[in-house]
Amino acid sequence: MLGNNDAAGIASVIRARGSSGMVFCLSMYWWMYTNVSTRIREFLYRFSLSLVTYREYGDHKKAIDIWRKETLPVYKGDLGDHPWTASTLRYMAGSYKALADGNSEPENVELALMYSRRALELQIKLLGVHQDTAHSHVDISELLVIKKEFKEALDELEKALEIQREVLGEQHESAMNTRKKMVEIWSIVESNQLKSERAFPCGM
Question: Which of 140, 154, 178, 196 is the most exposed, fewest CB within 10 Å of its CB?
Answer without folding.
Answer: 196
